[in-house]
Amino acid sequence: MIAAKTAATAVPLHPLLAERWSPRGFDRTHVLSDDALTALLEAARWAPSANNSQPWRFLPARRGETTFDRLHAALVEGNQTWAVTASALLLVAAQTVDDAGRARPWALYDAGQAVASLVMQAQHHGLAAHQMGGFDPTAITAAFGLDPSVQPVVVLALGRLDPTAALPSPLAAREHAPRTRMPLDDLLLPPTPALTTAA
Fold it and tell me: In what residue span(s) does the Nitroreductase domain sit (predicted)?
């Protein structure tokens, strides 16, 4: 069994944040319901974005569907080994150029906000989400005929945690390892002294 991975924080956080982590061991029998999938996508849809541009685009695929197999084939080998048991894979992309040809400089940031909302909604439903940057964006663009303005950002594995899932080494050790983060002080930028002009 996997021990609780509640974050050790300087002050208490909401349990949805403190208890969230990214497992690789998924229940291969779990089916993601229509209602649950819709709730996740709705949470992402209502995320904030620059000028309410809503540049995120989603391609959901449940295990057993052809789309799932095509997304899975675009993952790097290390992710393929465990993501195959997820209930669903979800491609998140960002429209980096709008319909008028203008650049959307904050599209990737906004897509990240949508994913964060989706992940918290998944946690609320008792579901696990593992975000993957290890995939071939060129292969995904070709496989699904994505417009050049639509940039693949991340693929999520979604499902229900299986604490007993068999994982290859060293992934099994990482599954059981405690969560860690850099100290908060190391993440703070030092203040820059105000520049003065000599009289």
Answer: 18-77
CATH 3.40.109.10 fits 30-162, yes or no: yes
Question: What is the average pLDDT value for the chain, to the nearest integer?
Answer: 95
What's the Cα-to-Cα distance from 121 to each of 12, 22, 127, 137, 160, rounded to whole Å?
Answer: 20, 14, 9, 26, 13
* Distance of alpha carbon 53 from alpha carbon 43, whole angstroms: 16
The rounded distance, in Å, linking the Cα atoms of 96 and 104 is: 5
d(CA 187, CA 171): 27
The CA dihedral of 107, 38, 43, 105, to the nearest 10 degrees, is 0
Output the pTM of the full model. Answer: 0.94
